[in-house]
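Fold these two proteins, one after the other.
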Amino acid sequence: MKKLDKLILRAFAGPFLLTFAVVQFILLTQYMLKYLDDLVGKDLGIDIIGQLLFFFSVLMVPVSLPLAVLLSSLMTFGTLGEHHELTAIKTSGISLTRILRPVLITSALLAVFAFWFNNTIVPKANLKAYSLLWDLRQQKLALDIRPGVFYNGIPGYTIKVDDKQGEDGEILMGVMIYDHTQGSGSMRVILADSGRMFTRFGGQYLGLELFRGQSYVEQPDANSRTGATFIRQAFARNMITFSLASFDLDRTKEELFSDNKMMKNVGQLEHFIDSLQNRLRTEKRQVPRMVSPYYTYLRFDTTGRAANRRVAEWQVPATRLPVVNASTLEQASNRARNVRAFAGSTGERLAGLVKESSNYRIEVFRKYVQSTAILLMFLIGAPLGAIIKKGGLGVPILVSILFFIVYYIFSIIGEKYGREGVMPVEFGMWMSTLILLPFGLFFLYQARNDSGLLDWNLWGKVPAKIRWPFRGYKRTV
């Protein structure tokens, strides 16, 4: 390896690691905010939060790498240009493409790594992350008894307190408990002037010690529907224990989530796409045969030779047509409605298969597009840094955010159009790359010729070049 390569790689490594860490943190924070409502108030342990953060940070790597390469390339070559190191290297007879080569090779290796990571590690991380997130969403909120509010979090009981005192709110005033464990409604009620709340047996049970209260039990009379026996019992101290098993985190088997498209690699996705396409072709071939019984006097040719001919070519001999009367019209009307309902349901089912196939194809192309984006961002960032010649975190961040937002917007638009069938999935997924690639090639051309983007002499020649095809043209009246 040449000393020049080592110099450029050392200048690139620091900004890349720094920007990658910053981008990971920003994207992870933005992603976690979407699920904040599902996590707050459930008394999750540090280990559960740590697992969720780790899995989601793995999912952010394919998105963080292109932006980190763009920003670090801008910073690296912008700093070299600002300190005139780039000029000194060019003066020694080394071309710009040779200067960019070590970072280009590094970007290519990162692109290969990103594809492997996106195809192998990300599906497993998706399975772990979203199965854990599903279980966290199903978990109940932590025990939170508020004054003046009926609390139904403990199965079989409804608790209401007038006030809570103490440092941790363990002292309860004005306690009312409805016992529904017998399945008889609100026939068992406990009232107490005060109480003390605490956990027992390692937090698996909730103990509620009540003071100066009464319990009321209503027992219906078996001989009379309107009659009932009412029992009241006073107590000075009463201990009630509630099970907190319903607040534990129950893990669902991960195999139940493995059929989702986000949990599959390219090979599995393509196999599933082939299955959907075969199913779609089979159902399309069965449509003429399934619609034929609705027609009494006109039968479809289901052999495939005439199944798609135009309706105008259908002919029915007059000898097969019956006398038109009210019964015939009613029968024809019913059959027409049945055909319409069959066509509508069949069309929706086929459209659903097409859309599902498009969704799986989008996941396949996403793995390739996100990997190629690393090379695209290098092609934009490195020449642009050599042109701007500004290092640091000012101009590079603004330019990086601008191009990444453009790339992200066109990616979302292309993906949406591909999913809705407005354009082919292939073109929709590659649209952002095709739009930004000319910019990267233009920046590379400008950097090789030492032309600045704000070179007024360059842009002043553009109108003359536009007028060139019209030279010698004389306006005639």
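Now the second one:
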Amino acid sequence: MASVLKRDSVFENIPSIKAKTLRINLNPDIYGTFAEIGAGQETARHFFRSGGASGTIAKAMSAYDKDFSDAIYGIEKDGRYVTQARLKTMLSHEMQLMEERISRENHPDRLFFSYANTVATIDFSKRYKGHGWIGIRYQLDPKQKELDEIILHIRFKQNEARLQQETLGILGVNLIYGAFYKYDKPKKMLKYLYDHIDKDTLEIDMVNFSGPNFKEVDNRLMSLQLIKNDMTDAVMFGPDGNNLLPAAVLYKKNILALRGSFRPVTKVNLDMFEKSYDIFIRDKGVDQENTMVIFEITLSNLKASGEIDEQDFMDRAELLCSLGHSVMISKFQEYYKLVEYFNNYTKNRIGLTMGVNNLVDIFDEKYYRHLSGGILEAFGKLFFKDLQVYLYPMKNPDTGQIMTSNNVKVHPRMKELYKFFKYNGKVMDIIDYEPDVMDIFSRDVLKKLMNNEDGWEDMLPEGLSEIIKEKNLFTRKTIEVEANES
């Protein structure tokens, strides 16, 4: 049956929403349930309207009352309803009922699915635009025991609940259609989710694929597609390679972020992290158990050699994940935008670990000419409340002098501004650094590695050189050495 579905998915023209629902309804094997909470039964409505829904819809429901919802799906540990955990509970419960109530003997070719969403639309004060979780659990073969699953998190941008409901309904149709007819092209499937939807109306900031038909899908690469396709501004993934929802993992957390190319991650990167982390958690306002460490790479860094090399991205991710770190990919070229993003989710302490050269760039006016308030506007956002910069020293290649916050040279016009932040404790030097590693730069390691020169192994944290050799990372001829690196 899977081959039939794949063979049937040859149309590249964008079909209408009615055409998509009708195609599914007229397929005699696709059969499932719709469970929608928070924004009406918008997805099921499209299937009912197109005709032939009796062959597709086993059940459509909306357990709006919390008591009814809890009676059906149970109570989540955190007591919340618009969460990934709630969505997964809904998908699991509805699929289990499907398998219990529909006889395989009578319907040997049926492809079961459960579609669900749990969302919160815009509130009356219009302070919170709304967000939600959407997913489908399904079969592509009637004999398939382990099910496939696609889960999304979305953020609404429209200012009317009615418009958000309509957008949600269209997105649901696109997801179900893509799951059955575009499953073999997951990258394209992500783009097709916006069929008949303006990108300005909806943000998709997390997606995870799982199941036997998605074994070859790396969710980190799917995260990258969300950024490349302008679906969101930032994505995160954990050490296990699965995508994380930034809003969930950053919520009310203390955040320590280290920006770099990590191409590859070196001993100096690790020293910067470890020393700044030690300072960060000793702060009396920081609870170590409520702290999130992020290794961040900007999209502009990934594009430093032209177009994004996806394998190069995966090589960087492979090493960072092997060290047990969470990674963020963002579109925030300027630091103040990154801090502004963090401030959307937490009011706790934020720390930025950076080298002297990065600090000098922050005080360069050319990066803020597009702002009406110039550098002062940017700094008002950057050094907002509890932000702290942990400065890693740099050796001047010409004089051998160690550059710190005390002798760093910024533009003469910026000196007084720099002194203000310096003497107000916003910049703190890392003083217990390892002098033996401070001359290590990723670009030099990469050059040695690609030219088969000796000595690059000693520049990396323990165990990483073995991973690079075993998996043949960073050795393709298509990769060019970056001219500059943070």
